Amino acid sequence: MGWGVLQDSRCPNVPGTVNLNEEVHSSKLEDWEYEEPKKRGDIMAILFIVSLTAGVTVSLGPMITTGFDEIEKTFNVTADQISFSLVGLLQITTGSGTFFTAAAAAVWGKRPVFLIPTLFLFGTSAWEQLIAGFIIQNLGFKFTFGICALIYAFILPLMYLFVPETVYFAPPQRTEVIFDKSSLRIYEIILPEPPKTYTQKLRIFQGRISKAGFWCTAWKPVPLITFPVVIYAAFTYSFYAAGLTLIALLQDTIFSAAPYNLSSSAIGSTNLPFFGVGLIGTLLSGHTAGYLVQFLTRLNNGVYEPELRLLLMLVAGSLSSVAYIGFGYSIAAGTSIYIPIAFLGVQTFSVPFATNAMFTYVMDCHPSHAAQAFVTMNFVKAAVSLAMSEFVNGWFEFSGVKLVFMIVVITNLAVSGVSIPMYIFGKRLRSKIARSAFHLKF
After folding, report:
1. Three-class SS of residue 13?
2. What is the SS3 assignment for 175?
3. What angle do CA 253, 256, 260 make, to 5 degrees?
4. Contact 127, 145 (CB under 8 A)
5. Which one of 109, 121, 334, 380 is at 20 to 30 Å from 340 when CA atoms are compared?
6. What is the phi/psi pair of residue 188, to 5°?
7. Beta pairing class for 185-191 and 303-304
8. Is this structure's pTM higher than 0.85?
9. DSSP of 186-249, one letter per residue?
10. Which whole number is the average pLDDT over 361-377?
11. Measured in whole angstroms, how far is the alpha carbon of residue 228 from the centre of its chain?
């Protein structure tokens, strides 16, 4: 049946397709093994510390947008120059850096990759828009970086003490020869690896955990841009992420002007509801994807196709299009502040559905390349955001809110619409990649 996913007879076992009726053997971890925390509390501590660090770090660009007016006056620059320098360049730097941080984590472990960048962020970070709005209004935009430095000062010792290395390269087995006098036989036994002490676990560098070369690993994500699934997922994910950046860049321009005339702190406060909306969207998209895929797989005689994940784009594309057109036209009409904020909430709710669909689709189609594919996707997202940040404020002032968001809606429908042919022909594309001599090199 396939639920509209076209089959390919040229490749009997297309990578990604799983027949759940057949016995599935768990793959063996040959070289890579994981040091799992022993207690649930250890796991929760790691999740909390890493999540807190990520939450602060991703606010590096958007946090300053509530202070665009003050920055314009202080440095005598345009809004586009600010967005390009403080948002676009930050994102492209981060996107480019993931090539090297991912490679470093594979070669030397994740602990140094967590600790060293956090140390650098200690003095050069910022807080999210809600807090930044109050700080900018009362203390000035420069103090946002100082406040964030205090947060990293709190995070650093927690990360050092409670985020151990979780992956290592299994060392050569140690053996010992024993001579049994009673039987006159010689036995060779494998000695267990001695457990690491707490002091040893606190070391930032545990040595090389992989035989892979750093530069070779850093290059690995580049050829993946030739994989159709990665190309599709990268640009779809990038557009939806760029939508969030677009709103962040325009918020100060829109809400600081008439008829709203909001202060920096008030503009920051408008983002508060989106935290809850985004959390609900993330949870609901995950549960929806799980239920939908299981249900359709059962109806498909137990055969799972990764393209079933793309059905989430029906939700993402529909809601985001309604949100963009509603936001644009409500701003143009000068409606109550609550109406455009409500439409932004709808847009925020739609993004996790697209993100969930893209990342799980890539993971299921190319599981052995998933980590490198995510690096490629993040770089494309950063490049799109960089390009957009260079002109979006000037474009908005020149064209007006209606035309800008009408173009955004049309583009959004076009990008989301690519999911339809991808859903239909995705399996055949996976088959073609599996049979391609060029792609087999990777």
Report:
1. coil
2. strand
3. 120
4. no
5. 380
6. -110, 115
7. unpaired
8. no
9. EEEEEEPPPPPPHHHHT-S------SS-HHHHHHTTGGGGGSHHHHHHHHHHHHHHHHHHHHHH
10. 90
11. 19
